[in-house]
Design goal:
5-stranded antiparallel sheet, 3-stranded antiparallel sheet, single chain, binds magnesium ion, globular, 249 residues, alpha+beta
């Protein structure tokens, strides 16, 4: 069931979204060679709690940290680890959420650690543009397939693989609500978008191929190709005046 939010609820979601964005930016800013993924998680965690919010991911389905931190061929659900130290040329995705007043935000960003190759830089640029295009398609009266189609068409025009097994989702009082928001699909198909819907749009794009699998730790999802992948995400509200990004500061 898709839960439409009132104006009052959207204001609370904007607050949760702003804290999520502040935490994400703090983590991204700290992503330098020599820093561990555990340290990035600590920064995200402390930023969220210092704003009086709680980390949405901590304990969600049993996840052990405030942020999912995924490096290179890791797509999502990477577990922060003191022993995993970032090195020059890595790319790192941070995905986090904050809850305040009973509502959640959810956002992710992938950044290069120091200098990366032009090929990997392009993947990041295109995936971020996929997110922008997906958001631009999130207009009241459009359909879910318009979002997926916008993301898929752009990513595939560069020969990249669009991950099928993981998708975006509704967000609100729960971190994961209906509907599912795939990064692929056909324009004009699927659920009609309505004002008051709040969804996380999150393109997950592989350098090559669509395939992914989960490591033995039962969390970390990696590409079948072993090649890098990227993940960008915003929580947005669909309004009569167009899409509003909630996870920004
Ligand atoms: Mg997320
Ligand atoms: Mg999400």
């Amino acid at each position: 069931m898709i839960i439409l939010k009132t104006g009052k609820e959207l204001a609370l979601m904007a607050k949760a979204g702003r804290i999520t964005a502040e935490a994400l930016q703090a983590g991204i800013k700290a992503a330098k060679p020599g820093v561990s993924t555990w340290e990035l998680n600590r920064i995200v965690h402390d930023t969220i709690t210092s704003r009086g919010a709680t980390p949405s991911f901590l304990g969600l389905y049993g996840f052990p940290a405030a942020a999912c931190i995924s490096v290179n061929e890791e797509l999502i659900h990477g577990i922060p680890d003191k022993k995993h130290v970032l090195k020059e040329g890595d790319i790192v995705s941070i995905d986090c959420g904050a809850c305040i007043g009973g509502y959640h935000g959810d956002s992710a960003f992938t950044v290069a650690v120091g200098e990366t190759t032009p090929e990997v830089g392009k993947l990041l640029e295109v995936t971020q543009e996929c997110l922008r295009r997906g958001i631009a398609a999130a207009l009241a009266g459009n359909r879910l397939g318009d979002i997926g189609s916008a993301v898929q068409t752009y990513a595939e025009s560069f020969g990249y693989g669009v991950v099928r097994e993981y998708v975006g989702h509704g967000v609100g009082r729960k971190m994961h609500e209906d509907p599912e928001v795939p990064n692929y699909g056909k324009a004009g198909r699927g659920v009609r978008l309505m004002p008051g819907m709040t969804i996380a749009i999150e393109p997950m794009i592989n350098m090559k191929g669509e395939g992914v699998y989960t490591l033995d730790n039962d969390w970390t999802v990696v590409t079948e190709s072993g090649l890098p992948c990227a993940h960008f995400e915003h929580t947005i509200a669909i309004t009569d005046n167009g899409p509003v990004i909630l996870t920004q500061c």
